[in-house]
Design brief:
The chain has two domains: 79 residues; 298 residues, TIM Barrel (Alpha-Beta Barrel), CATH 3.20.20. Helices cover 39% and strands 18% of the residues. It contains 15 helices and 14 strands. Helix 9 links the parallel strand 10 and strand 11. GO terms for molecular function: 4 iron, 4 sulfur cluster binding; metal ion binding; RNA methyltransferase activity. Its cofactor is [4Fe-4S] cluster. Keywords: 4Fe-4S, Cytoplasm, Iron, Iron-sulfur, Metal-binding, Methyltransferase, S-adenosyl-L-methionine, Signal, Transferase. Its main location: cytoplasm.
Length: 435
């Protein structure tokens, strides 16, 4: 009898785990089995309270906070098709985004009408719209050659930056890449990066990351359809403000939303996560949990001492450990990795640096592709006297890599956006915007 009772309890536990409401239909990346970091992890003390506001019942949460929406749905006895209805309405909403109280009310009326038309349970609509909303707005847009930089205001009043990059194919069709931020500021203090001068102000939730994409997607659909141009967002890169691996749980959950067919519907290979190698362990976790997401490592030097000068946090991630993590990622994903290498005149563009980079690449078990990025001037880099190498020196560095058998390309396009301080390494909010 005791054995039967134990078996029954185990069976009930399994049923309970399996009955958890998750929007699995159309899912390309599964939720994490365990959450290892919290939204407030590593935050300055004064900002922990601000960030935790979104978890209070009286403060509306983002429609794009998938775990919270799914938890609410489970608590209210909803089914997966109800979650699909919510996201069909939320994703296709073309109304304004919480710019003022009047627009907020208009949003709710719009969403309520759409939900009712799709036979969503009417008794749950007031609860849904009181608990969830669009939490981000476009505060400011700076257009530039090849795209635009967006300053996004969060629900707590803080600001982050996102970038829209425009590509025109030979047939004239336009495609867009969205560069998203995962943190407000950054703790890594890379010597060449403007964002590092801000320090770490706060972490973004998965919903806030996804809302950046939604806002820019809405902008593309409105702005370019008005001008008779076709266009769509085809790629998302985590190359904005912050180190994605320092807020891994939120980033992973946003990867689920980006690739989910009921939301943005991108394939995992259309998403790139860029890291300065903040954690070899989390590179391995990404390989286990989202192997088809492209990995880009901001190496900037294959000589450990040089790398530590450029990236102070590299002292805790030795070059050999990062190399082993890349090998593991290649094994699990079946594909190689991309290295980002910022070329700075007289700092990391010597023949010794080329040789070390080539050796590092050729030792890897998976294929490696190197993006050579000419340094974009920043106030942070100015303090160190950094300059962009001459075109001739960049070409020599490039040729030496190719001669060694390393695939590499000079990304001249990364200079696009300099006029709006939206080019690679230049994202940092001005004090005038924070006031």
């Amino acid at each position: 009898m005791k054995a039967i009772i134990i078996y029954a309890l185990l069976l009930l536990a399994l049923i309970d785990v399996g009955s958890s409401l998750t929007l699995t239909s159309g899912q390309r990346i599964a939720p994490r089995k365990s959450q290892t970091t919290s939204v407030a992890e590593n935050l300055p003390k004064e900002d922990v309270e601000i960030t935790s506001l979104s978890s209070q019942s009286c403060i509306p949460q983002s429609f794009f906070d998938l775990p919270s929406v799914e938890k609410w749905g489970e608590e209210n006895g909803l089914k997966q098709h109800h979650l699909k209805t919510i996201y069909r309405v939320v994703m296709n909403s073309s109304s304004t985004f919480m710019s003022n109280e009047k627009d907020s009310t208009a949003n709710n009326i719009f969403l309520e009408d759409k939900l009712r038309a799709l036979d969503f349970p009417k008794k749950h609509i007031p609860s849904l719209l009181s608990k969830f909303t669009y939490t981000c707005t476009i505060h400011h847009i700076e257009k530039s050659q090849g795209g635009a930089k967006f300053v996004i205001q969060l629900q707590n009043g803080k600001l982050v930056e996102s970038v829209l990059i425009e590509h025109t194919r030979p047939n004239g069709v336009k495609r867009y890449t969205v560069c998203v931020s995962s943190q407000i500021g950054c703790a890594k203090k890379c010597s060449f990066c403007a964002t590092g001068t801000m320090g770490l102000v706060g972490q973004l939730s998965s919903g806030e990351i996804l809302e950046q994409i939604h806002l820019l997607n809405q902008y593309v659909q409105k702005e370019y359809s008005t001008h008779g141009k076709e266009g769509s967002i085809r790629n998302v890169v985590f190359m904005g403000m912050g180190e994605p691996l320092d807020t891994y749980d939120a980033v992973h959950e946003s990867l689920r939303g980006i690739t989910h067919q009921c939301l943005f519907g991108l394939k995992a290979k259309q998403v790139t996560l860029s890291t300065v190698g903040a954690s070899a362990q989390k590179i391995r976790a990404l390989a286990d949990e989202a192997p088809q997401v492209c990995l880009a490592l901001s190496l900037h030097s294959a000589i450990q001492s040089s790398r530590e000068e450029l990236i102070p946090s590299a002292i805790s991630s030795p070059i050999d450990d990062i190399g082993d993590a890349l090998d593991y990622h290649a094994l699990k994903s079946g594909r190689g990795s991309m290295l980002e290498y910022l070329l700075i005149d007289g700092v990391n563009d010597s023949d010794e640096e080329v040789d070390a980079l080539a050796e590092f690449c050729l030792k890897r078990k998976g294929s490696i592709y190197v993006n050579l990025i000419p340094y974009n001037p920043t106030l942070a880099g100015d303090d160190f006297g950094y300059r962009t190498p001459s075109d001739e020196r960049i070409s020599v560095f490039h040729e030496k890599l190719k001669e060694a058998g390393v695939k590499a390309l000079v990304r001249w396009s990364t200079t696009n956006g300099r006029d709006a301080n939206g080019a690679c390494g230049q994202l940092a909010l001005s004090s005038s915007l924070e006031e």
